[in-house]
């Protein structure tokens, strides 16, 4: 929330590569910037509040700085949250990499009543401080100039580093003497000692493995005797921050109510905050599907449909299985995925604007207490809400969640949200079996997977992801005008990811399902999928269902709306709901119809959702659990 991504995007543009850190699920972004005839590689490290390994993101950030020893470290901080942001700077100054500070949002700070003097702060810290308004492109290239100068010539002088509170300086020195011989290079001994006093779990485990048992016992004795040392470490840093900002920062006068406070009186209110969030969600949902829906139909008809027709004509002389593979398997799977692009584009644009504006933190705060029931945090609510339209963008929308654990749990729960395809199936079939109480039954069937979502979330939180929960710390950033360049690149990188998935995992899954529903006879009734339906018919009889409803359930794996079409084909009446209704009433009693509808609402996700789960989690294990 300080504009780090804006700075990175301005400098690298489209020359970016997005992937994961080796052995990690944390996103890694790197880019090349051409500056004054030089090619500069920039690594966008995950945002962090401190260098204590409270999350995988913070661990990646500090390990990269220590192990890779970059030529320079640029830390972007907010001028309107100077004191809070300088805590991270106080830790970075203890590491060997030279530092440059980008003092961003100078305009926002002024608007909120803060007056910051960058030149005084630079003189006090002994580190280059570059004033910036990154959203307008001001100061960004000057920041890179300063970083290149520091990388080439070294720091301007020895920086002023924080010290531990005086009453603990002697014991810190003693601890450094004890561990110095076993601290692995290139870790600074003083920094490791401070992390041990802070109770950093990762560093404690690492040093215990490096040191002889008897020497570690001495260290453990010191740590146990000074359990309050973390207060001395933090106290020393905050005293340093007060000293660094004494002449460089003038705060707003007491009692001054700024724009952020006025808006937050509504946005974070226990009741009105929910009303505001409901209004925001209504706008997003309306835009996503009122605009995205028609655009999706246009893409399906004029892009995917025409492409499928053209391929069918080109392959008219080819064997029928080749035409089926290309037209139905490839275009019916990966092609259908492409029709989601308008919906995803609008959703990612909405998320980008809300994130850059500063509202996402408020939405997460308002929903946090409700989502805790599921073992999640507030930010998970928005992707889950999108699932009412389609589970695929809901699963992809979980990318806005930074925590790996919460992102994984959100992805696992998203398929339980009843999507538009399942809601459409209810609209067709519920009146067939329950003409007198269709509305009541429909609401009950919609509520069933939501209850399962709540129960499944609580259970998964306890069993599947136990022990991985990181503390939820979210800063309430100041509201500011969104940066269109940052939002555009945010959308671009995610849409590219969608296109990549459509051409890889989803394509493979679609072809596999097509083959199972076609081979060996070319008819779904006698295909391997049909044979499977007949094989599990004894199980279906427990629900009062024959093999036809079971095959319809299996074909809904390709797309949920296939259930009605398959029933029409198997019962020999086509896809017309009116013709199908009489046959279904005669074939299935209401209890069996209800069993079929319940099973459909809780059935495995569609092939696109499963493929996206595999891609987003990087594991077939999580996809199989769904």
Structural key phrases:
626 residues; three-stranded antiparallel sheet
Structure description:
This protein has 626 residues and is mainly alpha-helical. The protein has 31 helices and eight strands. The strands form three sheets. The protein has a three-stranded antiparallel beta sheet, covered by helices on one side. Strand 2 (27-35) and strand 3 (38-44) form a beta hairpin. Helix 12 (259-267) packs across helix 13 (272-314) and helix 14 packs antiparallel against helix 22. It is elongated. It starts with a helix and ends with a helix. The mean pLDDT is 81.
How are the SSEs placed, and which strands pair?
Elements: H1 4-12, E1 16-20, E2 27-35, E3 38-44, H2 56-68, E4 73-78, H3 82-92, E5 99-104, H4 106-111, E6 115-116, H5 118-125, E7 129-131, H6 140-153, H7 169-179, H8 189-197, H9 201-210, H10 213-225, H11 229-245, E8 249-250, H12 259-267, H13 272-314, H14 320-338, H15 341-357, H16 359-371, H17 381-386, H18 391-397, H19 404-413, H20 420-433, H21 438-463, H22 484-502, H23 505-518, H24 528-535, H25 537-541, H26 547-555, H27 562-570, H28 577-587, H29 590-601, H30 607-617, H31 620-625
Parallel strand pairs: 4-5, 5-7
Antiparallel strand pairs: 1-2, 2-3, 6-8
Helix pairs in contact: 3-11, 7-8, 7-10, 12-13, 13-14, 13-15, 14-22, 14-23, 15-22, 18-30, 20-21, 20-28, 20-29, 23-30, 24-26, 26-27
């Amino acid at each position: 929330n300080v504009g780090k991504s804006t700075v990175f995007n301005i400098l690298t543009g489209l020359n970016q590569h997005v992937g994961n850190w080796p052995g990690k699920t944390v996103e890694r972004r790197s880019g090349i910037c051409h500056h004054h005839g030089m090619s500069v590689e920039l690594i966008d490290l995950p945002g962090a509040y401190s260098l204590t390994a409270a999350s995988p993101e913070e661990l990646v950030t500090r390990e990269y700085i220590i192990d890779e020893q970059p030529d320079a470290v640029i830390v972007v901080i907010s001028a309107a949250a100077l004191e809070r942001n300088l805590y991270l700077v106080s830790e970075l100054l203890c590491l060997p990499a030279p530092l440059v500070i980008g003092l961003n949002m100078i305009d926002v700070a002024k608007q909120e009543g803060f007056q910051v003097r960058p030149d005084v702060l630079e003189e006090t810290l002994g580190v280059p401080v570059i004033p910036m308004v990154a959203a307008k492109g001001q100061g960004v290239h000057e920041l890179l100039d300063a970083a290149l100068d520091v990388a080439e010539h070294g720091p301007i002088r020895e920086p002023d580093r924080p010290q531990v509170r005086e009453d603990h300086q002697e014991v810190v020195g003693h601890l450094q003497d004890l561990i110095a011989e076993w601290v692995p290079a290139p870790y600074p001994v003083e920094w490791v000692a401070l992390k041990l006093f802070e109770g950093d779990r990762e560093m404690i485990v690492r040093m215990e493995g490096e040191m002889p048992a008897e020497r570690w016992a001495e260290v453990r004795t010191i740590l146990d005797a000074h359990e309050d040392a973390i207060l001395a470490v933090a106290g020393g840093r905050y005293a340093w921050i007060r000293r660094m900002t004494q002449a460089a920062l003038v705060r707003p006068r007491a009692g001054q109510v700024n724009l952020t406070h006025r808006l937050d009186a509504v946005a974070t209110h226990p009741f009105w905050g929910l009303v505001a969030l409901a209004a925001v969600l209504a706008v997003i949902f309306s835009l996503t599907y009122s605009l995205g829906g028609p655009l999706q139909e246009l893409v399906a008809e004029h892009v995917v449909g025409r492409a499928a027709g053209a391929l069918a004509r080109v392959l008219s002389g080819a064997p029928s299985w080749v035409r089926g593979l290309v037209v139905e398997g490839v275009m019916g799977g990966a092609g259908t995925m492409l029709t989601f692009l308008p919906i995803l584009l609008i959703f990612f644009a909405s998320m980008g604007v809300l994130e850059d504006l500063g509202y996402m933190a408020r939405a997460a705060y308002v929903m946090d207490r409700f989502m805790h029931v599921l073992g999640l945090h507030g930010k998970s609510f928005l992707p889950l809400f999108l699932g009412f339209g389609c589970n695929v963008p809901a699963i992809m929308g979980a990318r806005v969640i930074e925590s790996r654990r919460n992102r994984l749990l959100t992805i696992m729960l998203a398929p339980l949200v009843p999507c538009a395809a399942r809601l459409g199936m209810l609209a067709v079939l519920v009146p067939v079996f329950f003409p007198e109480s269709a509305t009541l039954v429909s609401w009950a069937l919609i509520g069933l997977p939501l209850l399962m979502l709540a129960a499944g979330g609580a259970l998964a939180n306890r069993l599947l992801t136990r022990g991985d929960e990181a503390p939820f710390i979210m800063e309430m950033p100041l509201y500011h005008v969104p940066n269109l360049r940052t939002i555009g690149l945010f959308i671009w990188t995610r849409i590219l990811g969608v296109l990549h998935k459509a051409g890889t995992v989803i394509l493979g899954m679609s072809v596999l399902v097509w083959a199972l529903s076609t081979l060996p006879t070319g008819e779904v009734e006698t295909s391997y999928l049909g044979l499977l339906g007949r094989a599990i018919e004894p199980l279906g009889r427990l629900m009062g269902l024959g093999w036809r409803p079971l095959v319809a359930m299996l074909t809904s794996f390709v797309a949920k709306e296939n259930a009605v079409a398959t029933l029409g084909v198997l019962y020999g009446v086509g896809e017309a709901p009116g013709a199908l209704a009489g046959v279904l009433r005669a074939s299935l009693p209401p209890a069996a119809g209800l069993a079929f509808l319940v099973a459909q609402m809780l059935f495995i996700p569609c092939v696109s959702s499963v493929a996206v789960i595999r891609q987003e989690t990087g594991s077939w294990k999580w996809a199989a659990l769904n």
